[in-house]
Design brief:
The chain is α/β, with parallel strands linked by helices. It is built from 18 helices and eleven strands.
Amino acid sequence: MFKYRDEGMAKKILSAIKDTGTESRFMHVCGTHQDTIVRFGLEEMLADAGVEICQGPGCPVCVTTSMEIADAITMARNGVTVTAFGDMMRVPTTIGSLFDAKADGADVRIVYSIEDAVKMASDQTAPLVFVSVGFETTAPSTCVPLKKGGLPKNFSIYSCHRICPPILEAIFEMGETKMNGMIMPGHVAVITGMEPFRKFSEKYRMPQAVAGFEPLDILMASYMLAKQIEEGRSEAENEYTRLVRENGNPTARKLMEDTFIPTDREWRGFPVIPKSALVLKSEFAEHDATVVHGDILAMTPEVESEAQGCKCGEVLRGLIKSDECPMFGTACKPMCPKGPCMVSEEGNCSIAYRFSGKRM
């Protein structure tokens, strides 16, 4: 389960958590954290030490709304080449998925980077859209071709990018998810630095620890939170010091500031979250799919937010675990997903299904 040299350290950390005497519930907002937690059986280990842990809205594909997927499908079915990362292709909506559109003859392609999409656009005359998804971690990479300039005239971007601080604020304000500590995403903090998290400790008296992605990172972050609770502190601490700096990555942040503006948008399972999504600035309008293909997007039909019976929204809010959804493992499996949490490799349901009964 652990490398031999790590096993002793894991036992020491778990013992130290137990010694704090805290009975705690922590939330994290990162699909990679969830993979580590389930893959290595940390949920059970932490439970024995008095800590319950749950996943919030940490999967970028999962929080992308059905309406945004429907926009991409509508463009594809109306003569636009649509490119996106693989996880986006199988997300179901009530008008099908991008793969369904491809099966119907639409030009839909998987890419591994925005550079792939730019190259494809330069090799054709038909319009091509890159559906960009991700948090602060991937948004800077979307900015680079735009800032370089010289993009093909037939290339545009449909931005589904989200940023983390507004959704965290929404979780705290909604108050429906009971927790007394947050494990914050290390990859986001690499870009943002620590400052965006500090206000939550001050405003909501919420202990936080930014964590890396190894099993010992998760355990150590849990210990840091338990220690804060024991001592009556509410701070934003950095466990992931080997990569996260106080000021993050100023170059990446400047790229985002120069390219995007925040806008209000729904997240799957959540209402409209103010200033939580990123849209291209007006100076990039010639490569903004919402401008270039506005006439096509006006034809996007209304779609249901979730398939009937799907509980992805509740999973993303940390209200239920994946196996508490009545469709989990029966009507909803990776080969026949009913919601994005079973599609994306960072989705809670996909992770729970893949590692059910298995441990490394």
